[in-house]
Single-stranded DNA-binding protein
Amino acid sequence: MKITITNTHVDEKQWSKGDRSGTIRTQQATAENAFFRNRVRLDLGKEPPYPVGEYELDLEANVSVGDFGDFKLARKPKLTRIEAKPSLAKAG
């Protein structure tokens, strides 16, 4: 699945419950395959934002089976950067 990141802005949301609190940090991206193209949020945890570019989300590396037999998507997906192909300049 292709993931496209167009900016490095990080959304931060503060939360607290009882004596615990924290910050949820996410980055916007676009996920697309042959069947859909949608905006998604990537959980960053304490990691820096992904640089602008195109990435590959390997579903086999990011999906597991939960305790009750259901599919679980990794909370912090591992993305692999798609390297830009060098353009061939015409020799003239």
